[in-house]
Amino acid sequence: MPSMLVIATTAVPDHLRGALSRWTSEVVPGIFVGSVSARVRDQLWQAVTETVADGAAVLVHPAPTEQGYAIRTAGSRRRVPEDFDGLTLIRMRAALLVKETQSHP
């Protein structure tokens, strides 16, 4: 039975966006919404995880949990979903501090 899904992407290859738009609607740049079977959802997510490259993606879909949905992520993200006694909470990773050193003559 089809169920709704949302996939949010950041900096992914154009061909991945094209593949996702075959099954879903890109309602705003990088946000895909659709109603597909669990099998199609899993195949789409497999394609995302295999081609995300340096980008990032998040999938949200209905699931038999207390919250009623599940979250999957691929690629590098600052926000990381974590299970906390049956609830999915979002943990923030520390921002990377980049220091540029300048050489003085």
Q: How would you describe what is shown here?
A:
- The protein has 105 residues and is an alpha+beta fold.
- The chain has 2 helices and 7 strands.
- 16% of the residues are buried.
- The model is unreliable at 97-105 (pLDDT under 50).
Please summarize the sheet with the most strands.
5 strands, antiparallel
Shape: globular
Q: How many DSSP-defined strands? A: 7
Order of helices and strands: EHEEHEEEE
Mean pLDDT: 88
Q: Helix/strand/pairing class, anyone?
A: alpha+beta
In what order do the strands lie side by side in the largest sheet?
A: 2-3-1-4-5
Helix content: 10-25%
What share of the residues does DSSP label as strand, in percent?
A: 35-45%
Extract low-pLDDT stretches.
Answer: 97-105
Separation of the first and last Cα atoms: 69 Å
Radius of gyration of CA atoms, rounded to a whole number:
17 Å
Number of alpha- plus pi-helical segments? 2
Summarize this structure briefly:
The chain is 23% helix and 42% strand. The chain has two helices and seven strands.
